[in-house]
Every structure is written in structure tokens, then in C-alpha cells.
């Protein structure tokens, strides 16, 4: 497939650093329901509204996650699988640092790897797990440099 999938923290970074959305017009950006759900869970209503604006303004295509996790995944937006690879990713994330959103990160990482997408993230633990499992990852500023050079 090729292209990029943004971790939820990238939408925060775009908002906080006032990154021009025009950078992303000529690249293929993908999201899953997970990123939108995490934005929807933002408790500060003003911040949530701002993040929703950024999320909806980034040119994107929504794809299904490769696995389904009860309590996280949405019916019709997640594929049924044995879940083994997603479990391996989550176990590795938990071994570095147990966080409440490791299941969500594992779903995003698995989807990136399965679809040959580069994960754009500022989460160093997720970045390391992607590398360990053979996935491509970069941060937002590296992506912008790549876009500017193209």
C-alpha cells in the first residue's frame, strides 16, 4: 500500500506547533477509528474541539485495524484475526512501560506494518517497538523534511 499513518499524538503536535496542513496534501495519509476515538476521549472540551478540527482537516483515508480488541475496536472497522501479532506488539509495549493506551498503540502499529505504512509518532516506545518488529516509523519533523525534499 505505502503511505503514512499518524499516531494520535501527531494531531496534538500539529495543533501545538501550528504546523501547516498543506504539507500533507500530496502524501497518502491513513487513519483508523482508534485515532479518532482517542481524540474523542480528550476531557478538555475546547482542546477536543481543536483536535477534531485538525483531525478532519488532514487529508486522510480511513482503514480498518488488522485485529479486534474487545472494548477498543469498533464493529465494521476492525478485521477479525487470531490477534497474535497485535498481542506480541502490546506485550512488547507493556514490557517497556505499561500505559492505558498500549492496546490502541498496538492496533495502530499492527495496521501500519500489515499495510506497509510508515507510522508517524512522537512516542519513543512505540517507535522502538515498530523498529523491533520490522515496521517503518518516523517523527513529524522527519516527515516534513522528506516532504520538503520531494
Automatic annotation (TrEMBL):
InterPro entries: PIN-like_dom_sf. This is PIN domain-containing protein. It comes from Gloeocapsopsis dulcis AAB1 = 1H9. The lineage of its organism: Bacteria, Bacillati, Cyanobacteriota, Cyanophyceae, Oscillatoriophycideae.
Amino acid at each position: 500500500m505505502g503511505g503514512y499513518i499518524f499516531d494520535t499524538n501527531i494531531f496534538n503536535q500539529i495543533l501545538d506547533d501550528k504546523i501547516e496542513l498543506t504539507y500533507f496534501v500530496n502524501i497518502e495519509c491513513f487513519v483508523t477509528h482508534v485515532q479518532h476515538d482517542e481524540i474523542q476521549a480528550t476531557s478538555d472540551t475546547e482542546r477536543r474541539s481543536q483536535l477534531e478540527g485538525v483531525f478532519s482537516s488532514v487529508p486522510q483515508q480511513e482503514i480498518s485495524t488488522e485485529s479486534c480488541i474487545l472494548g477498543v475496536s469498533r464493529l465494521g472497522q476492525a478485521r477479525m484475526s487470531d490477534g497474535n501479532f497485535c498481542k506480541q506488539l502490546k506485550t512488547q509495549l507493556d514490557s517497556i512501560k505499561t500505559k492505558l493506551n498500549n492496546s490502541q498503540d498496538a492496533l495502530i502499529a499492527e495496521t501500519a506494518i500489515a499495510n506497509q505504512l510508515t507510522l508517524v509518532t512522537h512516542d519513543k516506545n512505540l517507535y522502538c517497538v515498530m523498529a523491533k518488529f520490522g515496521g517503518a516509523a518516523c517523527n513529524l519533523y522527519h516527515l516534513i523534511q522528506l516532504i520538503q525534499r520531494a
